[in-house]
Fold:
Amino acid sequence: MTVQEPVDNPLRVGMRSQRTPEPNTLVIFGATGDLTQRKLIPALYNLALEGLLPGGFSVVGFARRSKTNELFRSEMKSAADQHSRTKPLQASVWDGFASNLHYHQSEFTDPEGFAALANALAKIESKTGACNRLYYLATPPSYYAEIAGRLSEAGLTRNDTAWTRIIVEKPFGRDLASAAELNRTLNSAFDEDQVYRIDHYLGKETVQNILVFRFANGIFEPIWNRRYIDHVQITVAESIGVEGRGPYYERAGVIRDIVQNHAMQLLSLAAMEPPATFEPNAVRDEKVKVLRAVRPVALEDADRFTVRGQYGPGAISGRKVPGYREEERVAADSTTETYLALKLFIDNWRWAGVPFYIRSGKRLPKPVTEIAIVFRQPPLSLFPATGGSSIEPNVLSMTIQPDEGISLKFGSKVPGPQAALRIRPVEMDFSYGTSFGFAAADAYERLLLEAMLGDSTLFARRDEVEAAWAFITPIIEGWANSEPRRFPDYEAGTWGPDAADEFMSSDGRKWRRL
Amino acid sequence: MAAPSEYSAILSGEARPVDVVAIEGELRQLWTAAAQDAFEGHPVVRACVLNLVAYAPGDDAARHINEVLAQVSGRHPSRSIVIVAEPGTGAPLLQAAISAHCQIAPEGGKQVCSEQITLRASGPAVGELHSTVVPLLVPDLPVFLWWHEEPSLGSHLFQELLETSDRLIVDSADFAPESAASSLAALQRLAREGTVAVSDLNWSRLNHWRELVAQFFDTPPARQHLDRLKSVSVEVAPVRGSEPGFIEGLLLVGWLASRLGWTLEKGGKRARDGALAFDLRSAVGSVHVELKPVPGRPREGLLSVLLGAAGGVSFSISRDAEDYACVVVAAGMRDGGGPPRAVRMDLPSEAALLCEELEMLADDSVYREALDEAVRFMEVGR
Ligand SMILES: NC(=O)c1ccc[n+]([C@@H]2O[C@H](COP(=O)([O-])OP(=O)(O)OC[C@H]3O[C@@H](n4cnc5c(N)ncnc54)[C@H](OP(=O)(O)O)[C@@H]3O)[C@@H](O)[C@H]2O)c1
Structure:
């Protein structure tokens, strides 16, 4: 495959965005599904609105039910109406955008449907003059391999004069073997540099900011290591339940839904070595290195390094909510975990001996995602503890949700006579959500655009996904061998099971109160 | 010293007169009081990422600046110092007031507040104002000087404030027709000297236009036409008064000329119906430029840009007659380019433009070079 070098456009000098994507056609597999309606179409509309899509951009929606272009367009319009970040829809922008929306009806398993897709694409491309193609797998994961194979069979995976790329949604595999198998199938149809594995966390502004924060501010890098850091806490808390996606969650659990992908991404960004350049592969090389340095958990140790939990009935923000087992299409005796606390070590020079604690769960008191770096105590306590309180450690926290920002907690003397020296933690806060009050672009907007531009920095590479699964899989297998937990074990609207607190206190540490 | 309740009035936007020498002390009191009673249930965070010194010639301008600052503070928490000057009038007088702009974070979280100091001076006191302003700047943060008038190089206050500023912000759309050329040239001189970076809000108005123009040439089939452009035609609406906003149009053409290496060929002239026309020379031939005022449109800024290239190829961006918040973008090439499409392009508010400039710290050499050309066009156009 030859990808043209970006055009040398002298008008781009000094401009914020360095280019727009080349004209292309996006084929969405599963175009009548929930993801397409809630995320993809609204994101595309907003890109069109901002003028970020190239002229000659079209969408082909591929799904099973039969419908006309007109019906498809009007369904997509109500989806955009309901879910767009900007409202109301701008009529002329929508109309222009919608005139390039097409529907293609076929089964994913039907070779003729794919031959017909090739024709449909050729017809569109003869009008727009653009043969670049982006496929988006917004389908149940069981079809990923099937679709890739059919595309390959129909000769739709490569083109001599234009680029062809494929975006793959989560979940990417159920364990190391299935992820590796899926990678093999995808890579037999597409080269690795054509494959864009989406993790929408990486599309968030603050997640990208972790790297800028670490590597653009000289004061942090020297202390970002075992000499100064006592431990790291990564929290991905959700207050929502399973939101009607019971069958999916039953098979996933929090470990597959959040920890294997999002939390491991946050871990690798917080712990990676500085990349030589900010090129996609240089950044991902470092992320993979750190994931590979995570000390494996032996099957029989799975319960020693983790705490699982499942929520029972409770209340969120004053509203009663059912327990997990009472959710729609969830087994009444389900053993799926909705909470996980996990301890891991990274065996490299920088992190040797520093524990990383990850916790994630559903129906926790509030939605918050953060990475907290907890620094060591001063080697010698100069100041006597007073009033029973010891000096609190310095904590640097990077919040990703909901208040994007960074804060540093340090000790300060409470004003008063020297004899009654009292030290109180003070929080120094920088929230860029408010400091630079942007209506930040949605993660899907950002990622769709990056994929069209051919920048894969914010997508997971094959070895990255496999390295994360290599760590996670033995834990899942270890659990299968151990005694079933007594679920439910935490009330909805609380910070998880008591065992999670004991897990920390037995290490002489505690979870941050968020 | 004021009671806490008086401070909560300030946090809701009221100005409180204070003694000039006690400004810092009063501000400290304000934030202490605010921290104590978590104003209206939202914890108050004082934040500051820059100093913004705004110069208002008179009360009307000051009111306007206040409104703009209230909108800007959410995005760029700052210490703003508004100078209301009436140099001509009466006895020397210097008064100060403090106020705050607070924004509640969308998720009902913290309340972020910016502080504002207003200094009002008249008569000879105006000339000495800088000595009050300078000590009030928050140390080590960038200083932006927003000069809400044509830059007056002769003014002592302007020169003194410029010395302590990192960036000067003006709006050339406000330049009066008779002085526009000399003011633009003055701006060019400042930008060249390089002691202070220069921003023109009229240039920021072009950001989206420039983005869309550049977009045309991002693809290989279109890129070749960029070297073969033969005409540039820009329709401009009156900016505020009746005079067409030629400066914005000239900056756009100046930008094209400086990026593409076009030079001025023949003397320009006012063509029929008040249009401005001149020729430029590109590497392959001449480029005819025309700026046409379109009367009767009460809107701001550019209305359309049409680029013509050899072989009947054209690229156009024009405000949608039906949906004024949008422009229609069309590329007429034989080898495609797709059907015309609509893109949203709101008329940017002054606050939005100011926000963009406050993000910039470095010198903008692309603007500087466009300005050089615009000044040249202006001279031949006279
Ligand atoms: N929904 C979310 O919030 C979300 C978030 C993150 C990731 N994801 C991932 O995104 C993917 C899609 O999720 P979703 O919730 O959008 O799924 P969904 O609502 O179940 O949609 C499935 C889509 O696939 C089509 N389809 C299914 N089987 C087909 C077949 N044999 N032939 C042709 N079309 C077929 C359906 O078309 P018909 O309607 O015509 O049957 C429908 O358009 C999943 O991998 C999911 O894990 C979803």
